Amino acid sequence: MRPDPPPPPAPGLSALVCGSAEHSLIFAPANLVDDVRRTRAAMEKVDTWGDARRLLTPQRYAELLDELLARVDPDPPDDEPLDQSDLSRPGEWPCLFYSQVVDWLPADIIEEHGEYFSTMMDTGVIFDTEDGGDAVCGALEGAGISVRWDDRLDDLFVDTE
Q: What are the contacts of 28-32 at 24+ separation with CB within 8 A?
């Protein structure tokens, strides 16, 4: 008798990146991690609004506008300087939030391998690092979600939204 096939991955989720932060594992969708890194690399080259329009994806450019300008303001001209110190998190834009990890993982895997927490400042899930993540990563892979390790994943996260 053949074993049952693994359950399908969460809709739209096929690959995660795993890393560690303090005393917990953290996870984020691989495509989002790659996008945040590409965007931060592009932002290092942005001096003007024209640079931002040219180097950022339309979605990230729209987010930048929302972050820095009122919705009724017209788009700045290409040669107008873009002052990144006006960002809510200069040098860390865009960023991921620890509280989002709950949204990215299948609930059954969180229930089995994680521990929910809630404080006045934040909510989320903690995963034990004792086995190096083997149990939770194995469960994710068993659910059809590939997982890759990234020692620098924590650099993309900030504490609170």
A: 28/96, 28/100, 28/101, 28/104, 28/153, 28/156, 28/157, 29/104, 30/146, 30/148, 32/96
Cross-strand bridge partners of residue 124 = 117
Mind listing the pLDDT tens digit for each residue in 13-38?
A: 899 999 998 888 999 999 999 999 99
The answer as to whether 18 is a domain residue is no
pTM for this predicted structure: 0.85
| Residue 41 forms part of a structural domain | yes
Q: What is the mean pLDDT of the chain?
A: 87
- Residue-level pLDDT at 119: 82
Residue 153 buriedness (CB in 10 A; 0-12 / 13-18 / 19+): buried
Domain extent at residue 40: 24-151
